[in-house]
Amino acid sequence: MRIGIFDSGIGGLSVLHEAYHRLPEQDYIFYADTDHVPYGKRDPKEILEYSRESAKFLMEQGVDAIVIACNTATSVAVRILRQEMSLPIIGMEPAVKPAVENTDQRRVLVMATPVTLTESKLQNLIQRVDENHRVDLLPMPELVGFAETERFETPEVLDYLTKQFATVHPEDYAALVLGCTHFNYFKNLYRNFFPADTALVDGNQGTVRYLAKLLSLDAEEDAGEVRFKMVEEMTERTVYYASGRPVTEKETLEHFLRLHNRLEEMREIC
Ligand code: DGL
Q1: Among 10, 48, 122, 182, which is best to mutate for testing ligand 1, by the most ligand atoms less than 8 A from CB?
Q2: For residue 213, is pLDDT > 80?
Q3: What is the pTM of this model?
């Protein structure tokens, strides 16, 4: 099957990476809307427009299904795109449900972009699943830009995290929900702030599992380590687009390769 995955930028690579682990036999087209990243601070009308363009582009490439590998775009656009298009569309939402259901009675902290945090989709989800009012919300808009420019263990990222986490009490949390696909790149850094037993919960596994179910694919086995030494190994498995233009520059492809390899390291941290 041919699966199209889109995000505002490189956050969606974390979903593609998980798909390599669970659905290694499929063909992928990855679309990063790099002309318009970040989505998380934009007007929802613009986000809908950009998401529609991305989805339309993927549909024209003949994909069997589309994954919106972006919590922000999903919260604004998934319902409308499903009405407008006839192929299966899988969205993402912050993994609040598993975080609430699978943890003890301590609190749950959901980090996401400002748009995701204010849209009704997340508000409704919290109302449905957070019976004991354990969920707190924390916007983390700047992490998207840091990830796009490959700034991870830099002083500015550490300062930003220190400032943001100073507004909560990390020891109160049973789970930290990564409600934006760009946040997966910083898992090792969250560990500096939260106790060892605070679970880091992202929606990637659930999304890939749901994709498999929808397309009747078998997703039980993990294909094992996914690392790339050469760009060719990476492009053999997926065609990459940046806002509709094929990504061919060596520099950008090497950037994606480093990101995939970083995601493989981050995957161990949970
Ligand atoms: N990666 C996206 C998400 O999951 C949004 C990042 C952005 O463009 O603000 O929410």
Answers
A1: 182
A2: yes
A3: 0.97
